[in-house]
Amino acid sequence: AASMPAAYSLDLPEPSSDIEQNKRNLDEYGLAVHKGLFNAEQVAAMLARLKEQAELEEEQGVAQLSDQSSTSKTWIGRASDGEAPPCWQGVPMLINKGRIFIDLGVMNPVLHQYANHCFKNYPMLLSGMTGLIVKKGATPMVIHTDQQFVPFPTPTPVYLNMMVCLTDFTEEMGATRVVPRSHKWGVYPRTALGPNGTPINPDPINTVPVCCKAGDVILFESRTWHQSGE
Q1: Torsion sign across C-alpha atoms 58, 145, 113, 155
Q2: Which residues contact 105 (CB under 8 A, 6 or more apart)?
Q3: Is the dihedral of CA 73, 78, 82, 87 positive or negative?
Q4: Nearest in space to 145 (alpha carbons), one of 178, 194, 97
Q5: What are the two backbone dihedrals, phi and then psi, of residue 73, each rounded to the nearest 5 degrees?
Q6: Chain segment 39-85, per-residue pLDDT in tens
Q7: How do residues 120-163 score in pLDDT, each as one tens digit?
Q8: Where are the alpha helices (DSSP H) in 60-150?
Q9: pTM for the whole thing?
Q10: Residues paired with residue 142 on neighbouring β-strands, in sequence order
């Protein structure tokens, strides 16, 4: 049976604007960073629309919020509805919340190239498009893959995540953390319920933050082990 290796490297591929190099990085590391896909004006416009939408959803009491650092409660409503201040807000269905997300994201020919490579030119669907706002006090999620619901190894990933950085991603601000090359292991990280009922990893697993600049795009496939940062 497949298992997690006893020793593994945490080295990451260098961010690159070379599409072919990033395809090779996706194959080798399970992730890649496309450097500078969006310019400062485009980033500012996407960030302004996302923040405006997030504020309006909270104001209207329909925000997707979580206090995962304490009770791990997630709710739809206002910040005041939680048992603790929210440390995370999601803004789902961006495809329906601003033409800019369609023009720059969904219809982006560079991102299409990565998806075609990842799925070997098989037909594909946009499964989701969500804005993620990590707030102070957030703690790392359990280490997982995004296809742990599939009970067997797959020759190609089920999903390809394309994370558009609207601010600089640093370790201090909670950049996504990964286990490079884990997509090749043919196994998912073990999870169990911790003392307060929240998921934990019973095995010691080291992760590394993917640090990059606003305008970069982090690509990681759904077999790659990862977690949110602190």
Answers
A1: negative
A2: 94, 111, 129, 162, 164
A3: positive
A4: 178
A5: -85, 135
A6: 999 999 999 999 999 999 999 999 999 987 555 689 999 999 988 88
A7: 999 999 999 999 999 988 888 899 999 999 999 999 999 999 99
A8: 99-101, 109-118
A9: 0.95
A10: none
